[in-house]
Design goal:
Elements: H1 4-23, E1 34-38, E2 41-45, E3 57-61, H2 73-81, E4 84-87, H3 90-99, E5 106-108, H4 114-126, E6 131-134, H5 147-155, E7 159-163, H6 168-176, E8 183-188, H7 193-202, E9 209-214, H8 219-230, E10 235-239, E11 247-251, H9 253-261, E12 270-274, H10 287-296, H11 301-312, H12 316-324
Parallel strand pairs: 3-6, 3-7, 4-5, 4-6, 8-9
Antiparallel strand pairs: 1-2, 9-12, 10-11, 10-12
């Protein structure tokens, strides 16, 4: 049984929602919308319609990364009210739109056509249309297409409105157990072994949790590179976030790589998190052997010498002299 106080607050909240539905502005309404107090709740009134310059507005809308319930009321309303939705994959976005009963025109906008499509969309925005930009999952532009369109819209004087929401990187970080006071998001690691090792080497002294996206068929190789370059730091692998088979694996990069190698099948989207830099780890492997191991993984000899020197607190000359012995 609810208390009378709780029932009163519940009635007030219901009244507020109904009032908002009656008076809410269209998605193109000015950001100068204001709230007015009213007994029993608040109602929202629109201060104006459309952009101040008479042009359309571009909405950068975050969408669920797995669970379709992870979307804001504002995002659903915006998608339902814009004139056009630019999608990374129209088929993928259609699943979301159908789930919420949204019937809106869509157009593809992905890495293979964004050079040509961005000017077309800016032209529509200049004619006064409201356009929403979405990716397959999460926040557009974050390891997804959209930069060219947003940049072109800004240069054309078109207002760009962010509609915040789900982010795989932040979701993984929040549940990782790794430090959150500072973090570095690096997108996808390079595919080639040498370039991947070099990218990690440049971040070796970063006093922040490192966050990357990685594909299932490359994750074991990536973890092995992390172990070689950064040593036995704490690592967290987040897979299939917000989905039925969500999981978090914790340990060193080598330990997690061994767990994954024992599986027959490995699927799903992966977020890789690496703990902050620590002091040089103890490594009893002979210097020539350590250098040779890195070279076999695809690292150049000079880069291997540099990595071994940094990890052991030696100069490059000292490492080079060990190779000559």
């Amino acid at each position: 049984m609810f208390s009378s106080g709780f029932e009163d607050r519940l009635k007030a909240d219901i009244f507020m929602v109904k009032s908002f539905e009656r008076t809410r502005p269209r998605c193109g309404a000015s950001r100068n919308d204001y709230y007015t107090e009213r007994e029993g709740g608040r109602t929202m009134s629109a201060a104006g319609e459309g952009s101040a310059n008479g042009r359309g507005r571009l909405y950068v809308v975050a969408t669920p990364i797995g669970n379709l319930e992870d979307i804001t009321y504002r995002a659903v309303r915006t998608l339902g009210e814009v004139d056009l939705i630019a999608c990374e994959d129209t088929r993928q976005t259609r699943k979301l739109l159908d789930h919420y009963g949204i019937q809106k025109a869509t157009v593809s906008y992905h890495e293979h056509n964004e050079t040509e499509r961005a000017p077309e969309l800016v032209e529509r925005l200049q004619r006064g249309l409201a356009v929403a930009l979405v990716s397959d999952a999460g926040v557009p532009l974050v390891s997804d297409p959209g930069y060219r369109l947003v940049r072109a819209a800004c240069e054309a004087g078109i207002e760009v409105e962010p509609i915040p929401g789900p982010s795989a990187a932040l979701a993984a970080l929040s549940a990782s157990g790794l430090p959150t006071d500072a973090f570095h998001f690096g997108g996808f690691l390079p595919i080639k072994p040498g370039q991947r090792a070099h990218a990690l080497e440049k971040l070796a002294d970063e006093q922040a949790t490192l966050i990357f996206f990685e594909a299932p068929h490359r994750i074991i190789e990536a973890l092995q590179t992390v172990e070689q370059v950064l040593g036995p730091r704490p690592v967290v692998l987040a897979r299939e976030l917000t989905k039925i088979h969500q999981e978090f694996l914790r340990g060193t990069a080598g330990e997690i790589a061994a767990q994954l190698a024992a599986r027959e099948v490995l699927k799903g989207e992966i977020t890789l998190l690496i703990g902050k830099a620590v002091g040089p780890p103890k490594d009893d492997t002979p210097v020539p052997e350590a250098v040779a191991s890195l070279v076999r993984s695809g690292v150049s000899k000079m880069e291997a010498i540099k990595q071994v020197a940094r990890r052991r607190g030696l100069s490059k000359r000292q490492v080079y002299d060990c190779l000559l012995e």
